[in-house]
Write a structure and sequence with these properties.
Layout (H helix, E strand, L loop, with lengths): L16 H15 L2 H12 L26 H4 L14 H5 L9 E6 L5 E4 H5 L5 E8 L4 E11 H6 L9 E6 L19 E5 H5 L4 E6 L2 E2 L9 E3 L12 E7 L6 H5 L23 E4 L10 E4 L7 H4 L13
Parallel strand pairs: 1-10, 4-11
Antiparallel strand pairs: 1-2, 3-4, 4-7, 5-6, 5-10, 7-8, 7-9, 11-12
Helix pairs in contact: 1-2
Bound molecules: ligand MTE.
């Protein structure tokens, strides 16, 4: 294998995947936080037959995917983070120059409370939760990642968005000194993303601060990144420095760059092809057979989270609003 462990993580701190799995099984038996125990019960005994559009075995709230996990080594060495280069291994090689601490987040726009907040103040002492989410990249590969983070809605509510706040816009750091890739005009920097306010407030939308039980590695978007599991991976913006509540739909990097290929919503949808390739199936990078022998599996509507999120779009033509 040509991939190496992340140089930022001492080998002693890496939890081998089987150890991590075993720990999670203990948690599922109720030996961890009440929240985890509850999620475990909901998944185990609700007995509901999986509807076609939803992945079988997930917890009913969607917080814990039942799929086989992607190895930590693959999660941290096969990345998209164009600020550190456009190759999949570039972020793991180059992101050591990112300084995730100290960090601050600017909150602006249509809210009663705005300003610049230290990372600690922004997170506001909310309890960190465990989630296992599928991440489906628009390029056609996918992973299953155990995240630690705080529901985005819990964070946003504290800033008291007003009635004009219809959307939430996110911005990544753009610092030439820390990010060698932004010398190249592959995107109009800084990287920008956005959500409708009801999407942002949905309990599945997460601000991740860690994965596999360790602080977020730089190449995965340290110190805080968005994870929206029912949308293509590019919506899950990394290393966020600014959040604005807006009345109008915000501009987003990939939509600005190729509007015919990347819409604002970007919900995972096997029925709507990317103009240059099909979205019917995906290469699932998971387990020890990762990458070289990755299995091709069918892509599910909303990435298998239709039960939880389809109602957000019930009155919309998803071919038009791709
Ligand atoms: N965020 C920023 N700032 N820059 C990026 O290039 N790439 C996106 C998203 N967030 C990207 C980003 C894409 S295309 C994907 S698929 C995911 O990050 C990949 O996340 P991962 O590397 O943690 O798997």
């Amino acid at each position: 294998m040509k991939y190496r462990n992340d140089p930022n993580i001492p080998p002693s701190e890496i939890t081998p995947e089987p150890v991590y799995r075993a720990r999670r099984q203990l948690m599922g038996l109720g030996l961890a936080s009440p929240l985890l125990a509850l999620a475990g019960c909901a998944g185990a005994d609700d007995g509901a037959a999986a509807v076609a559009a939803t992945s079988a075995g997930d917890s009913a709230d969607g917080f814990r995917a039942a799929d086989e996990l992607t190895l930590l080594q693959d999660v941290t060495s096969y990345n998209n983070f164009y600020e550190f280069g456009t190759g999949k291994v570039d972020p793991s090689k180059n992101a050591h120059t990112l300084r995730p601490s100290p960090w601050s987040v600017v909150v602006g726009g249509e809210a009663d409370i705005t300003g610049t907040f230290t990372l600690e103040d922004f997170l506001g002492g909310n309890a960190v939760q465990d989630r296992i989410y599928r991440l489906r990249c628009v390029e056609g590969w996918s992973m299953v990642i155990p995240w630690q983070g705080i529901p985005l809605g819990d964070l946003l509510k504290r800033f008291k968005p007003n009635s004009r706040a219809k959307y939430v816009a996110f911005t990544t750091l753009a610092d030439r000194e820390q990010m060698p890739g932004i010398r190249w005009p592959v995107l109009d920097w800084p990287y920008r993303e956005g959500l409708r306010i009801d999407e942002a407030m949905h309990p599945l939308s997460l601000i991740a601060t860690g994965l596999y039980g360790q602080p977020l590695p730089n190449q995965n978007g340290a110190p805080l990144r968005l994870v929206v599991p029912w949308k293509y991976g590019f919506k899950s913006i990394k290393s966020i420095v600014r959040i604005d509540f807006t009345e109008d739909m915000p501009q987003t990097s990939w939509n600005m760059s190729q509007p015919s290929e990347y819409g604002f919503y970007s919900n995972v949808n096997p029925d709507v092809d990317h103009p240059r390739w099909s979205q019917r199936s995906e290469r699932r990078i998971a387990g020890s057979a990762s990458k070289l022998f990755a299995k091709r599996i069918d892509t599910l509507p909303f990435n298998g989270y239709a039960n939880q999120v389809a109602s957000l779009y019930s009155d919309m033509d998803l071919r038009k609003w791709f």
